[in-house]
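TA notes, week 10

Several of you asked for a full example with nothing omitted. So below is the full record: structure tokens for the whole chain, then the designed sequence directly under it. When grading your own attempts, check the secondary structure regions first.
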């Protein structure tokens, strides 16, 4: 398998999951502005959507969209328990979290990437995102991870979203469970390996 990623982007999530899986894989950095891979290939010829992540599977097929990619990887190594078994209520809880993070948190950062967004818009975005993260913070009270005691692919996704808050001035101090959770996930060997691989502090 080969993962195309951009350092610190949402592709960080499947990058962590690949490290957690223990499966052999390659990775290649993508310059999203130039739309070029580190080896000089036009990224649009690999992924017509023009964004990361993208995973070239062992059969040569392309899989895109982070929530789909992480579940695919998790299902290759069920013994790692990165996702509950398909068809169980727990699996639907995982998908519930993946969808919430994708639609309510991830996409919520959009105005920060829009050069035409006003400071008023960005301020409103900070307030809205803080409430969204607050929901997650409340859910994490008394538990180590989103689904309980076991780290799953949803935790890899929420982690990188929490990391983004540090760059955009989103105050999460009202939810101390989020800070403890962030530190807990950051200490995982797979997360440390991914930070190193992507050249992030």
């Amino acid at each position: 398998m080969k993962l195309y990623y951009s350092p610190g982007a949402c592709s960080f999530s499947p990058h962590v999951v690949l490290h957690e899986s223990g499966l052999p894989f390659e990775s290649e950095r993508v310059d999203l502005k130039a739309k070029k891979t580190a080896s000089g290939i036009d990224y649009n010829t690999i992924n017509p959507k023009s964004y990361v992540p993208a995973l070239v599977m062992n059969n040569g097929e392309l899989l895109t969209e982070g929530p789909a990619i992480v579940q695919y990887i998790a299902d290759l190594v069920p013994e790692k328990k990165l996702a509950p078994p398909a068809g169980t209520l727990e699996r639907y809880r995982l998908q519930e979290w993946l969808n919430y993070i994708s639609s309510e948190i991830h996409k919520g950062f959009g105005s920060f990437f829009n050069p035409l967004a006003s400071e008023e818009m960005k301020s409103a975005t900070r307030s809205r995102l803080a409430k969204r993260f607050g929901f997650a913070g409340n859910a994490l009270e008394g538990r180590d991870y989103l689904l309980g005691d076991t780290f799953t692919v949803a935790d890899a996704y929420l982690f990188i979203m929490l990391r983004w808050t540090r760059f955009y001035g989103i105050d999460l101090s009202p939810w101390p469970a989020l800070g403890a959770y962030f530190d807990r996930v950051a200490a995982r060997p797979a997360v440390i390996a991914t930070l190193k691989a992507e050249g992030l502090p």
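The mean pLDDT is 97. Use that as a sanity check on your answer.
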